[in-house]
Design a protein that fits this description.
Largest sheet: none
Number of strands: 0
Distance between the termini: 70 Å
Mean pLDDT: 83
Structural class: mainly alpha
Radius of gyration: 25 Å
Number of helices: 1
Low-confidence stretches: none
Helix content: 40-55%
Oligomer: single chain
Strand content: under 5%
Shape: elongated
Order of helices and strands: H
Length: 62
């Protein structure tokens, strides 16, 4: 026989739980690192911050 199935199952469950815990830690770290986006003014949409309306400068072509 190749081993007791219940032992293998417990090992598999333990490994799965460890992976879930590691993912949770990385998720929290990533969320803390992201923080608030770039110090813009309150109420300002960060997606359009810094966009200047009107004609745009010509781009140089290579």
């Amino acid at each position: 026989m190749a081993g007791n199935p219940s032992v293998k199952k417990r090992e598999k469950e333990r490994a799965r739980k460890e992976r879930q815990e590691e993912k949770a830690v990385r998720r929290v770290e990533r969320k803390e690192k992201a923080g608030t986006p770039g110090g813009g003014e309150p109420g300002e949409d960060p997606d359009i911050a810094g966009i200047v309306p009107g004609p745009q400068p010509e781009q140089e072509l290579y």
